[in-house]
Structures are given as C-alpha cells and as structure tokens.
Records
---
Amino acid sequence: MTPPERDPLSLPNPSPQFGRYAPSPSGRLHVGNLRTALVAWLTARSSDRGFLVRIEDLDPDRSHTAVADQQLEDLASIGLDWDTEPIHQSERDNAYSGALARLDAAGLVYPCWCTRAELASAAPHDPQRPYAGKCRGLNDAERAERQARANRPPSLRVSLGDVEVSWNDLLMGSQSGVSSDPVVRRADGVFAYHLAVVVDDAAQNVDQVVRGDDLSDSVPTQAALYDALGLPRPTWGHVPLVVESDGTRLAKRERSVTLARWGDDGTALAKLGASLGLCGPEDSDVTAADLRTNFHLASVPREPWVLDRPF
Ligand code: GLU
C-alpha cells in the first residue's frame, strides 16, 4: 500500500484509509498495550483498512530510541504488521508549525502562563483538569503583566471553547464530553500531544482511531481541534484497559508485565487472543491472521481485562 504522507491541511481525504497504533516510547509495552495494539490491528484489517505504527516521541525527556525499537519488535513478535515505515513525531515540527499557523490565523491561539499549581487549584477535584480559561481573553496589558511576573516563556493554547461533543464509540457506544483549551506548544517549544496526534492522524489518512480507554477523555478536545483545523473527524474506538488482580492499571514502568515476563515462550498471542474470545490460551500455533478470521468488533469484551484471571 502506498505510504499515505500528504498535506494534512488539504482536503478531501484520498483513500486508502488507515487504522493505527501510536505508542510513546517511554517504556517497554506491557501486555495491555499489546492487546490494544492487537485490537487496533484486527479492527483495521477486518475493515479493509491499512495499518500504521507511529512513534509518538514528542517529549525528548521521556522518549528513547532503543525503547521505540523494542516496541516495534514486540509488536512484530505477536504477528502485527504495518504498511509503511513508522514516522517519528520528533521529526514533524514543520507539520505542527503549519497547523499552529492556521489556528493562529483564525485568532484561536493564545499564550498561557499558568503554572501547574494554578491549574490544579482551579480544578482540584477533576483529574482531567479542563482548562479554566485564566489566560484566555487577556488584553495586551494583562499579557505583559503576566509575562513580567512569570519571567519565562508562555505555553500556547488553542481557544476551542467548551464544546459539547457526542460520538459513537466503536466499542463503548454512545459517548459525550466537553472540550477544553489544549496546550499545543509547551513553554519549552515542544509541540504537545493533542495537536500532534490530530495533525498526524489527518496527514496519514487515519480515519479509525482504536486505542486504550484511558484516552477517551481526550476525544472532545481532539474533535474540536479537527473542526478548528477544518479536518474530518475519525471514528474512535476505546479498548478497556488491563488491570492486575487487585484492580490497579498496568503502566509502562519497570517490572510491568511485558512480553519478557509473560509470553516470551511464544504463548503471548494465544493468551491475548483468548482474552478477546478468539482462541484458546493454549493454541500456541495460532497466528494473527487466524484471529482476524474470527474477529468481530462486537465480541471485544467491554470490561477491563483482569490479568492472571484463569481462562
Ligand atoms: N501516544 C499515546 C500513548 O502512548 C497514544 C496516543 C493515541 O493513541 O492517541 O499513550
């Protein structure tokens, strides 16, 4: 399939279209990440889409080339394939600058000097902390005063307003939420997640975003960002996370449940497939293509998968 790179801000979207998996290379993938990647691959392949992997290495302090290489190796080792060379977000500043310029020309970009402490105190009970708008709508004098007081460069936010967004999630059904003003460029000049993911998915013709359900809260803001950029929204599907038997979420940290600890003996794909009801956990000969034959989105469990639960 032809690599889909194109100008993200041009319309309309040519086919073919893609699903994707887009890990941040901050730590080795755990089995929950691999299971989500498998569902993304199965959903894309069984809907006649291409499939991409993208390296989301925006944050220089938390991204490691060796980790990205290991992630690709782990994805390939459970039988996933992708149709084009993975792109790296760390090499995409031109695309993000272009999108930022478009938002700026529409009068939507504003500087924000809020500190972490200010953000936390504005929304102490909300872990997602929708931006309360302290730096939105400041006049020139107020900006100069904030700048003098902060004595450091501002981050940049996009004014999206509090837009009520509803979407039909491929896995979770009817959902809704309210957008917030995202940071699109951090104070240190690094472009931020919401802008990069929207620009890249549009640039790569990704019209089907299947990912972990810890990211479903970001849909309203990303939907509003697609709208602000004049880009068509994709379809979203959020896969329930994997939890340990005591209910804690897996995280990409040391001692997490990675392939090295869980399925290096070639049993990982069967165990992941079994968790999706697609094969037995002992079917050590099963291939990703076999799972694809049996796959139906409707049969993906809607509950978190408890690891170590006996099959
Ligand atoms: N890079 C994000 C992560 O590793 C995923 C972003 C997305 O799928 O939208 O959690």
---
Amino acid sequence: MKPRHFLTLLDLSSNELNHLMERAALMKANRHSRSTAGLMTGMTMAMLFEKTSTRTRVSFEVAASQFGGHALFLAPGDSQLSRGEPLSDTARIISSMADLIVMRTSAHDRVMTMAAYSRVPVINAMSDDFHPCQLLADVLTFIEKKGQIQDAKVAWIGDGNNVCHSWIHAAHQFGFDLQLACPPGYHPDKAVLDAANGKARIVSNPQTAISGCDLVVTDTWFSIGRETEKEERLKAFAGYCVTDALLQTAQPDALFMHCLPAYRGTEVSAEVIDGPQSVVWEEAENRLHAQKALIEFLLEGP
Ligand code: CP
Ligand code: NVA
C-alpha cells in the first residue's frame, strides 16, 4: 500500500484535519499519560534538514522520544547528498530503513521527490512554498483559545511566503475567512490563492485586513534564503509592521500569532508580540502536540 504523505494541508481531507486537531488536544491534555508512550517503540524517524530550525527540529525530536522512538537527524553535509548523490536514491535508502521521514528543504519539488521515492510517510517540515506543520499548531492554538476556527476572520500581514501559502490552504480546509495585506511584488502565488474557493482574498492595506478580525498573523520579512534582499524588502514592507495601533482596530479579544523566529521592531512591535493578545508561546509549544497527532495519523491511519 502507498504511504500517506503530508507535504501540504491539501494532502488530508477537512475531516482528517479536524480529527487531527481533536487528537492533538487530547495528546496535550494527556501529555504525561502512558497510553501513547509506545507508539514508536523500535521505530526511527529520519529528519533530513537542509535549512536551520529551532522549533521544528526540537518538537519532532521530542515527539519521537515521547513516543518511545528514535529521531535520526541529518544536517546538510551529514549525508552523501552534499557530494551529489541523487535525492531519489537517498529517498529509497532512507525509507528502506526508517519508518517516517521529516524533511526541511528549499525547493518544494525536493520534498515531492522524496515522497515519490519513499516507501514510508514523508512530512514537509517546511519548504520555500509551504509550512503545513506550522498551520496544524496555529489552528490548534486558535481552537484552544476560541473554541472553533470555522467562520473566523483572520488577517495575514506581510510577505506572501511559505507560511502565508499554508494559511491560504488552511482557510479552505478549515472554512475561515482570510484577508491578506501584502506589498506589491510580495503577494502569494496566484494558483494557491485561486484554489482557496473564495476563502482567501488580497486587500489593499493592513488596516483593511485587520479591521474587525479575530486573529492577526505575520511572519519575518526575511525568510531563510532571502537575507540578501534585506534593503529592498525593508523599503517594500514599510507600513506593514503589526503595531499596537493596528491591532486596536481588530476585535478587542483578537489574538496575535507569529510562527517565530520574530524580529521585534521589524514585522511586529515588541509591545504586540510581548503583549496580552499574543499567543506565540502557546503556538510554538503546540508544534509538539499537533505533530504528535500527525505522526500517529501517518503511522496508524485515521
Ligand atoms: N516556526 C518554525 O518553523 O520555527 P523553526 O524554523 O525554528 O523550526
Ligand atoms: N517564512 C519563514 C518561516 C520560518 C519558520 C522562513 O521560511 O524562513
């Protein structure tokens, strides 16, 4: 049987994603229970990371250890990929021994190649185009705080990047309204937006996106690999910093999220990210609980 993969949020149905949210909440509530402690006994999760990471690496490694399994971390330069071995060969080899593959890379087609040649489930731990694991944690956090995300109003402010693309997928899959304010030249991919079934739309400025919304989300303006574009991006994103003045036009109980790492004073002010409406710490911790639910789903089925 072909394994299920998780390369984008569209790889699971809405029902399956909602089921994951329920399992993740249970995993969190029962974090010290022994009931899932043996889920990965004797299993190995190979983690091939071609970009740096704090949250994603730690949460996946801790998940494997809480499930009684082993996480095998391969950084760039650790494998023969760095000496030109084809990714397709690497996928065949790793998946002949490991039970699960978690891959962080640049071009999205690399994670697709990994999945195409792997005989075990592959999880996209972030590519240049998508960050679906982040969205599992973000949606879980919103549901925890507000009860449900369906029909909520969410504002994305800033770069139309990988995390933004996964928010667009989430709007479609979980049924909420997403308004995006992105500077000219930094809009999300049109095909991703067009596939959102009208649940996501571009608006002209951050004020319009945020007005009356239940959640404000942003991300760094300098994603991994974009560091050399700093000067032009700083100019293009002027006026897109999420400040207290902007947040005040959202619902009074609106939440603020950021996948982190964050740069205070650039895409968000310190008073917002460190303020009472920010849920970034819960959001980061929920990476662990959401990914435990994902691992369970991929290894054991729905
Ligand atoms: N949010 C996130 O993916 O963080 P890391 O890059 O530290 O893994
Ligand atoms: N958009 C950011 C997210 C980091 C978690 C990046 O790609 O670097």
